[in-house]
UniProtKB/TrEMBL annotation:
Pfam families recorded: Fungal_trans, Zn_clus
Coiled-coil regions listed: none
Gene Ontology MF term list: DNA binding; DNA-binding transcription factor activity, RNA polymerase II-specific; zinc ion binding
Record-given protein name: KLTH0C10516p
One BP annotation, GO: response to xenobiotic stimulus
Source organism, top-level taxon: Eukaryota
UniProt-listed Gene3D superfamilies: Zn(2)-C6 fungal-type DNA-binding domain
Residue intervals of the Zn(2)-C6 fungal-type domain: 19-48
Length: 561
């Protein structure tokens, strides 16, 4: 025990003066040597900055969040200025302990936690100061009784579409979809696709990105689009599922899966789109996109990797948060769990003119976290707070206005399950958001931009109005249905007509229910009139109107009447 006493100032002297950048980033003790013992043990690239004091540590991830929100269980109030839930979690996870950190092998483009069985042999070898520590590899992962799957056979993309058509649909994509889902750098893509085409469209993960962009550009080009659109979609899918490429996750694969998720959300059943969005998140984790680069350890072979530029870092952030946002919003709307990641340290994307990715992420961050252990009152308060935050978010893009309506409709559906009766203020917020979304939906349909919620948001809104069933909500049904009918007429698809018929049925049933209620009330009124004899009072008006009797009447006891 005596040896522990002088060790306290000794630790302070080791830590106070100067620590190398890797040790400070990983919150590890540094001995101040060059290279330090910790970097030698873990094969870090040891280096010092000019200051070397705590003032040079990275700034907080989200500085606008006050200190009071950094507690594990922050107090929740209905009116707040910023989404508190996931932003607080990101802030807490920006500095991770060793048990939560991961290692990234850039050569094979794969990330895993330091606790992984795959990383343990390498970690042990480094700890034992082995001259040749085991590399990051899945030693003994299985018995090795069978060989791995072979690569599939693919056609060339130029067999499905011409180069000129590719650039045509690419232009449509970057005009319509890219401003919201910024997952591909336009300048880099145009240069790469030129080389890709000149090189014979060799099968690669980048080819899946090209196929995804062509498919979405065709979808948003107006009907009927490219005649081989579905074949191009299938081509991209086959490449993504090819074992040759799926074994090596990459940012290109994440981009391609985001594009596939968007296409599936706009064209097919919700389960397929939800599944694709979850795959996208897991690939983002496998590529370490959910972490800032300083929060990920690199293997020894990656010490010479060039540092990320600000542009590349921002692109990685935008890609991850696009994937996270579509998974969160789609899962919440569909009523399924979103893909969960253990600790996100990736910083939020910055806002820029003409780009609305950051605004999309902000809306997704408003979604209350799934907390089934919380009380009913807490969960209701979270939903009301979230609805207010969506109401206060400005409408900067038509698609984002529809996303706001989707979220408000989702909040109401959950509030209804809690048997919560909305007050007039909440109804006003909901109808204000959704009425604006009606105009946005019609404008998008007129411009031949078939975002999935141009039909679903108005449909759900009318259902919500009928379910609220108050004078404030029902007063909006006529306007909502009128715009919805115009959208259906413009689309003229089986899905649109089916939704229109469903609204008609629900509206007719609502009218029948109101009429039945009115009939019941009229019957009660008539029954009361028939069963009771008319009351005739014998009143002496001369006495009643005589002021001299007023005091006498006031002093009488009427309690027996």
């Amino acid at each position: 025990m005596s040896t522990g006493i002088p060790s306290v100032p000794h630790k302070k002297r080791q830590r106070a003066r100067k620590a190398c950048v890797p040790c400070r980033q990983r919150k590890r003790r540094c001995d101040g040597a060059n290279p330090c013992g910790m970097c030698v043990s873990y094969a870090y690239k040891c280096h010092y900055d000019e200051q070397g004091d705590p003032a040079t540590l990275p700034a907080p991830l989200i500085p606008e969040i006050p200190d009071s929100t950094r507690s594990i269980s922050p107090p929740r109030t209905r009116m707040v200025a910023k989404p508190p839930s996931i932003r607080t979690k990101i802030l807490l996870n920006s500095t991770q302990c060793a048990a939560d950190q991961g290692v990234f092998d850039a050569a094979k483009s794969r990330y895993m936690g330091l606790s992984s069985a795959v990383a343990f042999a390498r970690s042990l070898g480094i700890e034992l100061q082995s001259a040749n520590p085991p590399h990051l590899h899945s030693f003994a992962w299985n018995c090795g009784l069978r060989s791995e799957e072979k690569s599939n056979t693919h056609c060339a993309l130029h067999d499905l579409i011409t180069k000129e058509e590719t650039f045509h649909f690419t232009q449509i994509y970057f005009s319509a979809i890219h401003p919201v889902f910024d997952v591909v750098d336009p300048e880099h893509f145009k240069k790469s696709v030129e080389s890709y085409w000149n090189d014979g469209c060799k099968v690669s993960a980048f080819g899946a990105v090209v196929g995804g962009i062509i498919a979405l550009g065709s979808l948003f080009s107006g009907r009927p689009g490219h005649p081989r659109e579905l074949e191009i979609v299938q081509y991209a899918k086959n490449v993504l599922e090819d074992p040759t490429f799926s074994r090596l996750p990459s940012a290109e694969q994440v981009s391609a899966w985001v594009l596939r998720t968007l296409y599936l959300r706009a064209t097919t059943r919700p389960h397929a789109a939800w599944l694709a969005s979850c795959v996208t998140i897991h690939l983002a984790e496998a590529s370490a996109l959910h972490h800032e680069v300083e929060n990920v350890e690199l293997t020894a072979n990656d010490k010479a990797l060039p540092p990320r530029t600000k542009k590349i870092t921002e692109r990685a952030r935008r890609l991850f948060w696009c994937a996270w946002s579509i998974n969160s919003i789609l899962s919440y709307d569909y009523g399924r769990s979103s893909a969960s990641l253990g600790g996100i340290s990736c910083k939020l994307p910055t806002k820029s003119d003409g780009n609305y990715t950051a605004q999309l992420v902000d809306l997704a961050l408003i979604i209350p976290p799934a907390n089934t252990e919380a009380s009913k009152e807490t969960r209701v308060a979270d939903l009301l707070q979230a609805l207010t935050l969506v109401y206060e978010t400005p409408d900067e893009h038509n698609f984002l206005s529809l996303v706001k309506a989707d979220l408000c409709n989702s909040f109401y559906r959950r509030l209804r399950l809690f048997n919560y009766t909305l007050d007039s203020e909440v109804v006003f917020q909901l109808t204000t958001v959704c009425n604006h979304a009606l105009s946005a939906a019609y404008d998008l349909v007129e411009r031949k931009l078939p975002w999935w919620n141009v039909l679903s948001a108005p449909f759900q809104y009318i259902c919500v109005l009928l379910a609220i069933n108050t004078s404030e909500s029902l007063a909006n049904v006529a306007k909502a249905k009128n715009i919805f009918d115009r959208i259906v007429s413009n689309l003229n698809t089986h899905m649109a007509i089916e939704a229109q018929n469903t609204i008609k049925l629900l509206l007719q049933d609502s009218i029948k229910k109101k009429r039945q209620e009115l009939t019941d009330l009229e019957a009660a009124d008539q029954a009361g009139t028939a069963s009771e004899a008319p009351f005739t009072a014998e009143i002496d008006w001369d006495v009643l109107l005589d002021p001299s009797h007023a005091l006498h009447l006031m002093q009488q006891d009427f309690s027996s009447f």
